[in-house]
Amino acid sequence: MTERRRGLIFGFGAYGIWGLFPLYWPLLEPAGAGEILACRMLWSLVSVALVLATMRHWAWAGPLLRSPRKMLLLLGASVCISVNWGTYIWAVNAGHVIDAALGYFLNPLVTVLFGVLILHERLRPAQWLAVGIGAVAVLELAFAAGHLPWIALVLACSFGTYGLLKKLAAVPALESMAVESGYQFVPALGYLIYLQVAGTAVYGHAAWHVTFLLTLAGAVTLVPLLLFAGATNRLPLSMIGLLQFLTPVLQLLCGVLVNHETAAGSEWIGFGIVWVALTVLTVDGLRQAGASRAAAQTSAAAQTAGAAQASGSGSTPSSTSNASLVAKPSA
Fold it and tell me: How far is 149 from 102, CA to CA, in rounded Å?
């Protein structure tokens, strides 16, 4: 099996699991969103610690702990992903899967916007057009509903900020998750203890399969992250960009076909506008990726030709001099 095919399998696995999450969280009822979130945080740390222990991979911890900037950035990332997880779990269990799917459709546009506003990146005209179309979609949805689509915006902005902080921290996925879940561990454990003392906890008191699935939430969180890391190491960024749309598409299908949620015509118009924006963004990304590959191939070919010419003309000082004189006009 080629590395590219293996990367595609990993990518479909990661985005497929994330896309099917709306089917998982309702299985944890009667646990509330807060208890589900706390279990996910706590067991995520246990899961990632087991993986690191199996790999005997701890050398990274010392240098990272001695970097206050990276630790602070990962603290911010931990807060953002906690907000994202909590909002998403609540939305799914409250019957707002379609709104959650919209959030992840908007996420690429938010990421591009953050690149401009915070990282001072320069956008191409097509990227500006995509962001503008996305803004029109949000305004259309807000006007039709009489309020901002807050679930979608919270999910898109929290995950976009999470990605931004992770980019600034530049810590590999597994190590980053270990630190983030380490920050989450104490609040999560404290909340679960509070629920046990108050007598309102579901964990350990409901049917055995509910407790088992709450425990499994850590592994369910870790597995797609590892698959995603494997995909990004084997596939070009343009392919990853296309695969990411699998998640909100599956979420949308779960909301419509499984949860039987309904959306007004104005909501579908908003979705349609977002899809237009994503199409513009995707086409521009593919075009840019193709141009970059062509430029890289041209550069590599020129370097190869130059090296061959240099090796062929390097037998005597006089021939080297003549070769350099011939090469200058052609450059």
Answer: 9
77, 184 Cβ separation under 8 angstroms: no
For residue 329, the model assigns a pLDDT of 35
Give CA–CA dist 51/110, Å, rounded: 32
Distance CA 302, CA 296 (A): 10
Instruction: Give the model's pLDDT for residue 238.
Output: 62
List b or e across 272-299, with b for residues whose CB sees 16 or more CB atoms inside 10 angstroms: ebbebbbebbbebbeeeeeeeeeeeeee
Rounded CA gap, 220 and 225, in Å? 9
Answer for the pair 247, 18: CB distance below 8 angstroms, yes or no. yes
Q: For residue 28, what is the DSSP state?
A: G
Instruction: Report the C-alpha gap between 192 and 214 in whole angstroms.
Output: 12
Lookup: tokens for 279: 């199409």
Q: In the chain, what are the helix, strand and coil shares in percent, each to the nearest 5? A: 85, 0, 15
Quote the tokens at residue 211. Answer: 């407790």
What confidence tens digit (pLDDT) does each residue in 268-320 have? 888 888 889 888 877 887 787 677 777 777 777 777 776 667 666 554 444 44
Q: In 128-150, which positions are buried (b, 16+ CB within 10 angstroms) versus exposed (e)?
A: ebbbebbeebbebbeeeeeeebe
Structure tokens at 107: 């996420």
> Are the C-beta atoms of 165 and 114 separated by less than 8 Å?
no
Report the C-alpha gap between 89 and 27 in whole angstroms: 11
* Cα dihedral: 66, 69, 73, 75 (round 10): 50
